[in-house]
Protein 1
Amino acid sequence: MNLDDLAKLNPSAAWRLSEDDGDPLETREWLEALDALIAAEGPERATFLLKQLLQHARTRRVPLPQVLNTPYLNTISLAEQAPFPGNLELEQRLSALVRWNALAMVVRANQASAELGGHIASYASAADLFEVGFNHFFRAGGETPESRGDLVYFQPHSAPGVYARAFLEGRLSAEQLDHYRRETGFRNGAARVGEGTPTPNEKDQSAAESTSRAHSGPGLSSYPHPWLMPNFWQFPTGSMGLGPLFAIYQARFLRYLEHRSLAKTYARKVWAFVGDGEMDEPESLAGLSIAAREGLDNLVFVVNCNLQRLDGPVRGNGSIIQELEGLFAGAGWNVIKLLWGSDWDPLFARDTHMLLLRAFHETVDGEFQMLSATDGRFNREHFFNKYPELAQLTAHLSDDDIDRLRRGGHDPVKIHAAYHAAVRHRGQPTVILAKTKKGYGMGTAGQGRMTTHQQKKLDAEALRDFRDRFALPLADAQVEGVEFHKPAEDSPEMKYLHARRAKLGGYLPTRSSACEALPTPAAEAFARFVLEAEGKEMSTTMAFVRMLGALVKDAALGPRIVPIIADEARTFGMADLFRHIGIYSPLGQLYEPEDSAQISYYREAKNGQILEEGINEAGAIASWVAAGTSYSTNGLPMLPFYIFYSMFGFQRVGDLLWAAADSRTRGFLLGATAGRTTLSGEGLQHEDGTSHLIASTVPNCRAYDPCFAYELAVIVEHGMRRMLTEQNDEFYYVTVMNENYAQPSAPWALKVARSAPLAPPSPGPSPREGSEDTTSDVRAGILRGLYRVRASGLGAARVRLLGAGTILREALAAAELLESEFGVGADVYSATSFTELRREAMALERAARLGESRTAAWIAQQLPANGAPVVAASDYVSSVPDLIRPWIADRYVALGTDGFGRSDTRAALRAFFEVDRRSIALAALNAVDPALAARARASWGLSAEVPPWAR
Ligand SMILES: Cc1ncc(C[n+]2csc(CCOP(=O)(O)OP(=O)(O)O)c2C)c(N)n1
């Protein structure tokens, strides 16, 4: 295609065009003048003058080209290239072995079952990028925060290569490699490993596990999953785009710890290996600006530009490398292009007319992929023979020589030079755009093929070709048997491998969870004001913010707390914290804030404690994960509290939260302005009716929907102890509301302080004198998800009402209605967590099914079969209270806020969604006595006017 056609079709490819020169002589004079200047005064002076010229031209309105792209060449010239410090030959042999074992893992898994398998082609393209890192750059570290090493985010589909290296290092056994993607311990549905007599393989496996330094699970997970391999993987990256985002906020959090004098982290690097296709994810790009703005020179991205994604080319009609260069450079990153291997250097040296460059610029990625999938002869004919001068330039090369011209990302020398420059660059994060071939070395069967991503099989011939290509010391039978291979421990390769890692501090990836157990305060220490609230009006959000204010003052725990907000601090009444503990900024505060005369002015500080993320929930979660996994990555437990609009949590950033759970994050999420009817005026997109349902799907998330501030205090106290003192890998999701109402004292505080009023203003709980509730019952009930807050005033209850969040208050009011207007006695229960109730009941039911002794679930203990119907309501969809239906023996009615939210007053919305006191009472009456229900409908004017689907 000629350049004009290309320009018309594809304006984004304009970087590849060279315009007509009206006066070549003059052009040459200018260029010679520049050359003379560089020779006489050096490149710095040239840079200065060019900048001045550009500046001047802009003021004269001279149209200027995009300056964010450089030519399609290596950024680091041969002259600037750092010498390669390793033994190239040994490293090549090692990387060939890792390649082979990675391939063997996938092929063997696929042979064992076509359902299994994995990916070969991604690692085949990334192998050298990883290996140079392992041999020269990735520093492992000790257990103390000071001695911890680098943090590496691996491209997920390249996991087989990481396992294959760990195998050579002696950290994983061949048995374990053979259990790649076979993690459950079940063999073809038969008895589990560890139950009954172990098979010989299983015996070997457990022996290997006990000696394995890094991993103790029965199998190897498909992708990096700390949940599945907690001693091995640190960072989950399987969902494309999350790795790069998490890496950026990780690098930032390291700086935060340093600036707050909590840990020395300056020497540590964060490396993120990312696919070029993966860069299309919005999350991949989302953090680029903050990384540059905060000058995160502890961060290195390596984008594996094999030009292909799953279905086909990333940019068939353009250039992903040039596009990414522009994006990263525009965001303020240091960009290193690593495009051509050393074999090209002699060609470049002789290419005085820069025809190679011209040909590169004329080649779109779809063509580069074709060149990758074809042999030297094809490359000669279709690339070098484009111009007679190029044909001449390569005339001395055989077709095989041309075939072996490496792309930059396959040349350890060039890779080393790029990494060397990246780790020394100051003031900016660095991205290395490494050009590679997808399926490198997989021959005609896979290299550069459209379908290579999912290729899991290689026939015998392809395997032999692979062996030959990488000079593997394998006999035909070993190749055909796809045997793993590991040289003897005293071989030069193995000695070299271990020596390199010893020099870099040990092996990685390795995940540690060793950290100090932090004592955490009792609720009485940070929440007395709610335990003895005595009916004072406040919202649970206000109560939380006061608790947080008290917690940050706790001498031991306070500094470890990381409040995180996404531009809603004022909404939640947190502005006071700005002054007290400051907002983190690595620059401090370079301006006098507009509100500096106010008591709680907007204070930014280098040692600020609050992470104010702006309107960026994804970034806030990434910070929350970095803080909540600091116990592992830094050996320094931190306690993040991220408070946000509850609708913009699980719904908006659900996949990040899933990865957070996999990461074993410990921390609190506060879903504020929660509830579909409680956040009254905000309408459809803001009013959350589902987050508790989604939260229930995350196995290590403990979710609560408390109504009363004392319940919140108990949950916070408990969560802190579970996560920081007892070190459980779980996190807490608690919804808090912005509705002010009378907050009763905690029942046990009432018992202690007899002088406190027993009955808070109605509607509210009235734990009566003589009630059987004890402190521990109530506390246990709050944490397990249900306890009684009101006993029927008319003897034995004819109906039992359950309410969660603010809707508990509607249930309490409904009980009053039922008793006063219909003579129906009602007990009322606070349902702080339907999800916890279900989780426990499910676990007990399973235990019973499998023959273990069964105790009754808490829900069944609290609501025994006694003939009284149960009505439950919350500010969430009815599926939430429905979660406990199987364990309620009597008639059960679940009410909820199904449908789209909308704006109105709280009372109107509750009536509309039928979770108000009358709707609850009506449901109860229906269950108790239909005649009473008919009377209620008539007297309250209730009808089925709005069908549920229209809500
Ligand atoms: C969010 C998400 N979407 C889709 C996938 C499925 N997927 C896995 S790898 C892949 C292609 C990856 O291409 P690229 O990032 O270029 O990496 P490569 O394998 O080519 O090195 C896709 C679509 C995923 N893992 N995560």
Protein 2
Amino acid sequence: MTEPLRFGLVGCGVIGPVHAEALASLPDALLVAAADLDVERAQKLTATYGGTPYSDLQSMLQRERLDVVIICTPSGLHGEHACQVMRAGRHVIVEKPMEIRREALDEMLRVQQETGVKLAVISQHRFDPASQQVRQLVDDNAFGRLVLGNALIPWWRSQTYYDSGAWRGTWKLDGGGVLMNQSIHSIDLLQWLMGPVKSVVAYTDTLAHRMETEDVAVAALRFASGALGVIAATTGAYPGVTTRIEVFGNQGSAIIENDELAFLHLARDEKEATGDYGVNTKVARPGQEPNSSGASANPAALVATSHALQIADMIRAIRENVTPLVDGYAGRRPVEIILSIYESARTHREMPLL
Ligand SMILES: NC(=O)c1ccc[n+]([C@@H]2O[C@H](COP(=O)([O-])OP(=O)(O)OC[C@H]3O[C@@H](n4cnc5c(N)ncnc54)[C@H](O)[C@@H]3O)[C@@H](O)[C@H]2O)c1
């Protein structure tokens, strides 16, 4: 029998333990070590999930025999830490965003090519059954001509959340606000389902928090396919309301709400043809309240299931020597869209991406 792959983890704050939980659920993975500058966090995590605690990444890399290292440090450190791991000859899984600066993204891709190790970037919602189903329908051309694709993210984060880590809400280490930190999941899903974004026009502002970066943003998108779209995002919508990804085409439409398929209607499945005026189908089920649970209101409410699916995809990629579903090139795409939105908001100009 082959030995499980040996994992190390760096960054044991909010998301580190979610990865540890995910690893514990995978028979082909073993958490061997965890590092954090705040060594008590590494000790707490390893006391629960096993492994040896470290106070820095370099000593963990020097002393432990590791196959894969997961990077869960603040976003602006992802490039430095991922390159350190890849240069040590270990595969790497990087939390989102892959990085926050174009030069760092380029460097990560260059080091990955040079070293030949595998690089995966977390975008766990691509692994949700609803996202997989809608993506399959896009591949089957079931929606016909795609005309409109939207990502709506009316979330809530308190001032206490932003004050809980000196890096949160800063340009230097968070790389942005609601777009770069919270909405990147939905932006990645939107472009994965609708295809590449060709250009953006945007506004951003900071209206509900004391922080450097934006807590509200709107962007109009033109996709390469010709379809249009909208991103509307905030962390100032108390108490945090349903996240929606909407895909509309001339042969069908799908809406994902809080990671689940809330609406799907395809012309190909109709028994009778819809009339010239459509049917104006309702999405909301009678008596249902808007959902304010989950990550829209509380980042620590994350469950590890989708992370486990993505780590399993990386294990398969290593075992079979293939590319993980979200490799460095895929991980870079939502960051490019977000950086272009920031540039458009700053310059009041349309920004081309392709
Ligand atoms: N995929 C998701 O759903 C999801 C959810 C939350 C956070 N994240 C991402 O995970 C990353 C971390 O976010 P968080 O909320 O867990 O942050 P956090 O502040 O709670 O944890 C970060 C940890 O990294 C440690 N750290 C900082 N610099 C370090 C260094 N040089 N070496 C070792 N440890 C260091 C800190 O001490 C802290 O414990 C961010 O990039 C964030 O975008 C992803």
Protein 3
Amino acid sequence: MGSDGGHFFSIPPDAVLKGVVHETGGGVYRVALADGRLVDAALRGRLKKERRTGDRVVIGDRVHVDSTDSSSFTIEAVEPRETVITRRGSGGRRPKVLAANVERMVVVVAAARPEPGMPQIDRLLVIAESNRVAPVLVVNKVDLPDGREAVAELETLYRGIGYPVYTTSAQDGTGLDAFRAVLCEGSSALVGPSGVGKSSLLNAIDPGLGLRVGGLSERVLRGRHTTVSARLVPLSCGGLVADTPGFGEVGVWGVRAADVDQCFPEFEALGVACRFEDCVHLVEPDCAVRESVESGNVAPSRYESYRSLMKEALEAEDRRGA
Ligand SMILES: Nc1nc2c(ncn2[C@@H]2O[C@H](COP(=O)(O)OP(=O)(O)O)[C@@H](O)[C@H]2O)c(=O)[nH]1
Ligand SMILES: [Mg+2]
Ligand SMILES: [Zn+2]
């Protein structure tokens, strides 16, 4: 299951400044130092090498910074990560770590415009489950009358499984107090398709942020800083929110076929009841999961998501000859 496989660098004794990476892009790392300063740092050579082999320094990383003079900073070491959010990179052969040390993943969809897609929600929830980051579902734009059915359906399905579901409208303020309380606690990664209102929600919760809404993304509008990949936005209430782009094609990384069912909590509850202990719930006789789909206790959309992820995991294992 998702782990970052020994991400540890020895810490030199003369590195005195500690901080958290808030923004990355173009080889520059913006670090919020423990003393309150926000500085731009470069990577020490051997970390650069690590970076080329795919294990990048990402937002949320806790780093040790050395300062040769008061205006030039170098990241000397990265502390072991408590959590990572990893997805499959483009091409599908490599993992892409989006953020480190984030406590929860907030999956944001819209009640309508754009219409919510359950396969996409399920994939994002599986990314959270497999990385052991607490999942939260937000259904925004509940002010839209054409989204009413979808809101009821999503609430019933995902609350039934046990996920926390928040219904919000950045437009009329519905549900914002409850959602604010979530974001103000610790650190969260906000993920979901573009246009669902992620920036609008952050602005509504913290008007001081002034994030761009609609159309062009922050990244495009910031012109020459187009390589900015992600950033951590500090809220005035104390929470940290990772604004992560690149969740268009949602690929899951690092879940073995035999473990996919562990990312579906409602199957886990039934798992012991299958006839075979190693049942993967596809064609086996006396499978409690398939029987629960038949009897209506497991949603067909969830089982479809499971089958689709199983297919991908099995194909990936075939490619690697596992
Ligand atoms: N009706 C309605 N529109 C919203 C709501 N939240 C955002 N929008 C609109 O949806 C569009 C996309 O919003 P944006 O915050 O940029 O979405 P993002 O791409 O997820 O960051 C904008 O036109 C917003 O004005 C909402 O709660 N209700
Ligand atoms: Mg946005
Ligand atoms: Zn089974």
